[in-house]
Specification:
CATH architecture of the largest domain: Roll
Low-confidence stretches: none
Strand content: 35-45%
Number of helices: 3
Largest sheet: 5 strands, mixed
CATH class of the largest domain: Alpha Beta
Radius of gyration: 17 Å
CATH topology of the largest domain: 2,3-Dihydroxybiphenyl 1,2-Dioxygenase, domain 1
Oligomer: single chain
């Protein structure tokens, strides 16, 4: 048996509303928001006594999801939002966009900044990493031609 699909990628944030606004501007759609708590949820995550609010965001193609989580309790254990791109562990999510310049212009109004610069990779892609709200690292790429 192989994996059927990847259901979602999770990102923990302090300000759920700001994160939802940012990813909505990027082009994702809010599928729903809910609070999770109870003994069962701590058994899944290993964080007993957790109270968390989640927002599930869907990509325009309907296949990808991003789960944004804000923990009410327990307190955040560590913070690696500003870790450099060569740090161990999960790092970023890459999104395909139609127009990288337009995307950057819209997201910059919400505080996004380019990590270094937009680069042209062999006239196939223009791409960059950006820091969004709370320093969240994402990548965006515009395909210039089929490969």
């Amino acid at each position: 048996m192989t994996v059927k699909r990847m259901d979602n990628v999770g990102i923990v944030v302090k300000d759920l509303d700001t994160a939802v606004d940012f990813f909505t501007e990027l082009g994702l759609t809010l599928e729903g928001r809910t609070r999770l708590e109870g003994e069962w949820s701590g058994r899944v995550t290993g964080v007993r006594g957790q109270r968390v609010e989640i927002a599930m965001m869907r990509t325009p193609d309907g296949h990808g999801r991003l789960e944004l989580s804000r923990f009410d309790s327990p307190a955040i254990a560590s913070d690696h939002r500003t870790a450099p791109v060569n740090s161990l562990g999960y790092l970023r999510v890459m999104f395909a966009v139609d127009d990288i310049d337009d995307t950057l212009a819209r997201l910059s109004k919400l505080g996004a900044t380019v990590v270094d610069e937009v680069v042209n990779y062999e006239n196939i892609y223009r791409l960059c990493y950006i820091r969004g709200p709370e320093g969240i690292l994402i990548g965006i790429a515009q395909q210039l031609r089929d490969c």
